[in-house]
Design a protein that fits this description.
OB fold (Dihydrolipoamide Acetyltransferase, E2P), mainly beta, about 80 residues, six-stranded mixed sheet
């Protein structure tokens, strides 16, 4: 298992699974994902964002799609 910055993943869509999510003191949300298929299967990616309406506990354990476009990641449920 290796931890990667999202920008190191090539642009594309990745099947992923949320392994942990937590809110920092500054209100930002860190989501740790593992890629579950393809060439990057098993890689762990951390994404930091600022969606204040999202409950981190509710995200943990959910499948999702990690989308990287122009080196910028986003998560789709």
């Amino acid at each position: 298992m290796s931890r990667m910055e999202p920008a190191t993943l090539p642009d594309g869509r990745y099947d992923a699974f949320v392994i942990w999510a937590e809110r920092s003191d500054d209100g930002s949300l860190t989501v740790d994902l593992t890629v579950v298929s393809g060439d990057h299967k098993g890689d762990v990616v951390s994404i930091v964002g600022d969606p204040r309406s999202v409950d981190p506990v509710a995200l943990t354990g959910l499948p999702c799609t990690l989308v990287v476009a122009d080196g910028t990641p986003r998560i789709e449920e």
